[in-house]
Amino acid sequence: MKARHSLASVQKGWEAFQKMSGMRHIANDKDYEEVVALADALVDIGAMDEKHASHSLFAVLADLIYAYDQRNYRQADVHGVDLLRFLMEQHDLRQNQLPEIGTQSVVSEILAGKRDLTVTHIRGLSERFGLSPAVFF
C-alpha cells in the first residue's frame, strides 16, 4: 500500500495539529487532562455520534485516554449492573428513561439483581453510550 502523503508532510502537519489542538501521546497527568478536555468538548458538540464529522477524532482521543487509564490506573471489576448505575448517574437518567432495556419495572428488577441484562439490552446500551458491549460482561 502506498502512502498518500510523504512522511515529511505528515510530520509537519502533525506538529502543527499538536500545537493547535493539544492532542498528543499521553505521557503524564497534565497531557491526560488536556486530552480529556478536548474529548469533552467533542462530546459537547455531538461527536460521539458516528455520523458526526469529528467522530473519528473523538474515537482516537477515546483510545488514547483508554490506553493511558489501562497503563496507569488499576481497574476494579465492574459488572454490567454497576456500569448501568454509573451511566444512569453520569447522564442523570431515571429508570423510565432507558428504552433500550424496557419499562421502568424491568430496569428496576435489573438494578435490584432480580433480572440479568440480556444481549439485546447490552447492544442497545452499547449503542446509546458509545461503549463496547464487552464492558457489560
Number of strands: 0
Structural category: mainly alpha
The helix fraction, in percent, is: 55-70%
Total of DSSP H or I helical runs spanning 4+ residues: 6
Beta fraction of the residues? under 5%
Instruction: Please write the string of helix (H) and strand (E) elements.
Output: HHHHHH
Major pleated sheet: none
Radius of gyration: 19 Å
Which runs of at least 5 residues are low in confidence (pLDDT < 50)? none
Cα end-to-end separation: 38 Å
Look at the structure and give the mean pLDDT.
90
Total tally of structural domains: 2
> Based on CA inertia axes, which overall geometry fits?
elongated
Structure description:
The chain has six helices and no strands. With 137 residues, it is mostly helical. α2 (29-44) runs antiparallel to α3 (55-72). The radius of gyration is 19 Å and the shape is elongated.
Brief summary of the model shown:
58% of the residues lie in helices and 0% in strands. α2 runs antiparallel to α3. The chain has helices at residues 7-21, 29-44, 55-72, 80-90, 104-111, 119-129.
Using brief descriptors, characterize the structure shown.
434 Repressor (Amino-terminal Domain), 58% helix, 6 helices, 0% strand, 137 residues, mainly alpha
Helix/strand layout:
Elements: H1 7-21, H2 29-44, H3 55-72, H4 80-90, H5 104-111, H6 119-129
Helix pairs in contact: 2-3
